[in-house]
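Table S2 (text version). Query chain:
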Amino acid sequence: MISSAKYAAGFGPFGIKIHMLHLMKGTAMGEAYLRAPFPVLSRDEYIKLVCDILEIMPQSVTVHRLTGDAPQESLIAPDWTRNKHAVLNGIQQEFAARGSFQGSAL
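Corresponding structure-token output:
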């Protein structure tokens, strides 16, 4: 994901959207997960990854999305995605703990 973010940043985009994986009922991946669960990112892993991506993204790039919503009745995993505010607050806290910000690794 970091490689993809670096690649995208190299094109000088106007904006980016970052979104976690939602495993949903009625999808091939969701059904595969129900048959044989596989690892998915924890909330902390996702927050750290988002901060890693934003640190390498120029400040001139508008961030349109950091998280998303899935229909609650269809979501299989990860369960932590049900609380968007906790994710956004976690990103702010992680940046504060690192003493960093968007573009700080450039």
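Notes on Table S2: Residues 10 and 89 are 28 Å apart (CA to CA). The chain has a mean pLDDT of 95.
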